[in-house]
Amino acid sequence: MAEDHLSAETRAMLGRPAAERLAWFQTEFWIKYPASDAILARLEELVNKPRRARMPGYLVTSESNNGKTSIAMRFAGLHPPVFSDADNKMQMPVMLLEVVPTPTEAAIIERILSILGIPYRLTDPVPDKREAAIVAMRNAGLQLLMLDELQKILGARLEQRRAVMDALRYIANQVPVPVVAFSTPRGTGGLASTDEMINRLRPLTLPTWKLDADFQRLLLSFEEHMPLPERSGLGKKAMAALIHTLSEGLVGEVYDLLELALSVAIASDAPRIDEPLLRGLTWTPPSDRKRFARAAPPCPSAAPPAPHAVLNDVRGSPVAEPRPRSDHARCIATRALEMDGHFRVPVVGTPVDDDPGQGHRRKPDRDSLSMGASPGCLPPGTPAPWTSILSAMLGGAHRIRSKAVAVRVRDRVPGA
């Protein structure tokens, strides 16, 4: 049979319109493979483990887009919450919690309360909300707490990381419940703030795929869900090698690549995906994307910081010793001119010279409130309201010489 390479459900989609055929592949489906099965088995052991103090857990690490979240969602789907009409209670054996960006203890606890449907006020003290979360987790019969995207904790300050990890450890002890975290390798640095969590979360690695028989079987499983009338032969050595090169062995990249290839095949009415079609796709391998992102400048108009910078007043006299300037440093120079008994600020963003011996001079425009044209300062035309100027003068080191005021501001100017 020409279509025996497809599953029965996929075979039924062959006569459907193009949009429905593509949507069929885009609908979430699960493909079993050895590494995911091994992790799911470990998680199942934790769920069935008798409750005791200091429950063990795991830290599952893998490169981005390699199936960590899919495994977490799969396990949560295997243990869904159950609502009992008899006692009007919800039992949730497994909770999947995605770490919020720049997390705080309050944000994590509020997220737990929201998942459990427990009302709270933002103004409630954090200890009160923490205790409410512990009671709610006990009442829900929670047996496993999964934290996805743990690497986001690196966006918080070190003190916040400690507070978050200490709160999670305390909650896990009090419920008690084992914790499983999913993260990229760089996210493991978030655990460095607490030795207790490092010792409790045993490492599990989800490796990238090698070009071997398991990878070829994975491609055949994908092909079963691709509604094309003819066999594409994705599991053949040449096709598998090409797909592995383009995806770099990341299962999420494999799916994205095949989804793009399927959309092109359906749009062009091609009966299968072949090597020329794959090579003709507009596709950038993940390592190239990361390299391009690192090479891109953070701001097109920003110039590289000078090794040393001195802020001069409008007379050209240095008012500060040379010192390194941070990447986000911005300099504001203002001259307060007394006119009819009132002070006005005519010049903002006057550029500075790298050589302290060469004073930079600029004749002030009394009616100008725009930024200077120097690429080392903020972009030209940026408005400079009095609030920005006053906050800069109050927040930075300043020195008054006659009626000239020079201010150095580091990381305090909007847009810096």
Helical fraction: 25-40%
Question: Which stretches of 5+ consecutive residues score pLDDT under 50?
Answer: 301-416
Mean pLDDT: 77
What is the tally of helical segments?
14
- Euclidean distance between termini CA atoms: 65 Å
The SSE string, one letter per element, is HHHEHEEEHHEHEHEHHHHHEEEHEE
Structural class: alpha/beta
What is the gyration radius calculated from CA atoms?
Answer: 30 Å
The quaternary organization reads as single chain
Quick one: overall form?
A: globular
Major sheet summary line? 5 strands, parallel
Sheet-strand content, in percent, reads 5-15%
Strand arrangement in the largest pleated sheet? 4-5-6-1-7
Q: Give the beta-strand count.
A: 12
